[in-house]
Amino acid sequence: MSIECIHAAKKNFCLYWITGALFISIAAVGFGPALLTGERLNAAPLLAPMGASALLMLTMPSSGFAKPWTVLTANAVAAIIGLLVPHLVSSLVLASATAMAVTVASMGALRAIHPPSAGLTLFAVSRGAQPFAQSLDFLIADVMLGTVFLVLVAAALNQLGDFVFSAPTANRKTER
Q: Within 13 Å and on the Cβ side, how many CA atoms surround 5?
């Protein structure tokens, strides 16, 4: 299933499908980690870049920007760099610029460019220099666990969407 499914015959249904899939994806990112870890529910995994990642993965799943490896790697790299740079650069503006440049270069070197991860880098930098335990908790519990949930749910919804949108309809002509 992808944005290409939006064509004349199925335009409205596809739009509703994508809207519902986005709802399910973000709900999974919000509720999933808390259910898995048994910790209390918080909004931390609902980082703004997760919404952009969900939209990319659901509407353009064949794009290099939306592949599971790309999303997982880019989010990990972006969070790590965004958490480390404030320890080295005290100015928020210079730390943001440095983290962004290093993140994009790292994603490029790893062949894992995922544009929403750039926003994740800036969010991590905006937290300032954090103690190691807090940084590790943010990286694992908020970023990576949320990313894993998002990738799994988006992959499942894309498979289901492919099935739904490729099913024969009464309007299709049979080939002879």
A: 22
Q: Is 171 within the bounds of a domain?
A: no
Provide the whole-model pTM. Answer: 0.84
Give the CA-trace dihedral at 9, 10, 11, 15, to 10 degrees: 170
Report the b/e string of 24-37 with b at 16+ CB within 10 A: bbbebbbebbbeee
Contact 142, 75 (CB under 8 A): no
In this structure, is residue 176 part of a structural domain?
no
Could you report the per-residue pLDDT of 29-54, keeping only the tens digit for each? 888 877 777 777 666 666 788 999 99
d(CA 112, CA 103): 11
Identify the domain containing residue 142 by its residue range.
Answer: 3-166
Distance, CA of 41 to CA of 56 (rounded, Å): 26
Alpha helices in 64-172 (DSSP H): 68-88, 92-109, 116-126, 132-137, 145-166
Amino acid at 115: P
